[in-house]
Target: Transcriptional regulator, TetR family
Amino acid sequence: MVRQGLTPEKVVAAAADLADDIGFDRVTVSGLARQLGVRDASLYSHVRNLDDLRSRITLLAATELAALLGDAVAGRAGRDALGAFGAAYRGYALRHPGRYASTNRRLDPGDFAGSPGPQRILEITSAMFRSYGLADPDLTDAVRLVRSTFHGFTALEAAGGFGHPRDLDTSWDRAIDALDQLLRSWPVSRA
Model:
């Protein structure tokens, strides 16, 4: 990337690419400046500091992931929607490990006031779960279970943590089937 054309969007996109290459937690303003061939000070006209840069990577990733999830579940319900949502989630996590890692970072509500990504993910997730007839607090518990399963599976897969020769896609599909069955028979909270 050439020094003259830097914009906040280009800086964040380059930082997100760098996160995918070296890991989200290893991204620094100095490392990004080296990657872009500029001085650190040149980046501070586009981002306030490292925390701001990382928050912007998170927002970019959330926006990208929301678009994928929305396309995946459009017109689907139940097991079909859960499987499509899971496939989009897993694919994004494996293709963009640094960006994905950033989505597990908690943001202050003020950080994403102007970005639709995080809110859109919540809306898509809620819509997907609607066909299971869950309401809070059961809905929150179910979302946490599904997210934990998806995250755990993809984290282990990305790290090469599954040593058994059984096909990973088969195990993934079985996990989706099990989650679907569990969600359809979710025990109603007594709270």
About this structure: The radius of gyration is 19 Å. The mean pLDDT is 93. The CA atoms of residues 101 and 128 lie 23 Å apart. The longest helix spans residues 50-73.
